[in-house]
Design brief:
Layout: H1 6-26, E1 34-42, E2 48-57, H2 79-91, H3 93-103, E3 111-116, H4 119-141
Parallel strand pairs: 2-3
Antiparallel strand pairs: 1-2
Helix pairs in contact: 1-3
Length: about 140
């Protein structure tokens, strides 16, 4: 993997900060729940930006979850919720790109492509496995 230049890293960080605000304030699609922008990778020519997001679920006042959202045994969001949020974000990518162009001083604003970042869910899963192993170890020592 090639090293990322400091300028590309600064641009990616700026895009990440701005998109986090823009998604929160400007996207009014009900399919987009609580979305956190976890990372941005910008191509060398600044033509494309891969935006990695995690979906935490949208909350309605009654059940605590958006309609149609179910939790599995571990409490993780259903794949349908994640797919719908990604579809909505990719559909709004042109609008977000135009808002991003107004807020930044870049000569060209990259085309935004949204991806689901599984690192947070994977980290929680690994942490639960470690906790189970520690609990089983302490039972065997007693």
């Amino acid at each position: 993997m090639a090293n990322v230049s400091p300028r590309l890293q600064r641009v990616a960080d700026q895009i990440q900060r701005e998109l986090a605000l823009l998604i929160q304030l400007e996207v009014n699609d009900p399919r987009v729940g609580m979305v956190s922008v976890t990372g941005v990778k910008v191509s060398r020519d600044l033509a494309h930006a891969d935006v990695y997001v995690t979906v935490m679920g949208s909350v309605d006042g009654v059940s605590g979850l958006a309609p149609g959202v179910t939790l599995d045994k571990a409490g993780a969001l259903d794949k349908l919720e994640v797919e719908e949020s990604l579809k909505a974000l990719n559909a709004a990518s042109g609008y977000l790109r135009s808002l991003l162009a107004k807020r930044t001083s870049l000569r060209t604003t990259p085309k935004l492509i949204f991806h689901y970042d599984q690192s947070v869910a994977r980290g929680q899963y690994l942490s639960s496995l470690i906790d189970k192993a520690l609990a089983a170890d302490s039972e065997h020592q007693s």
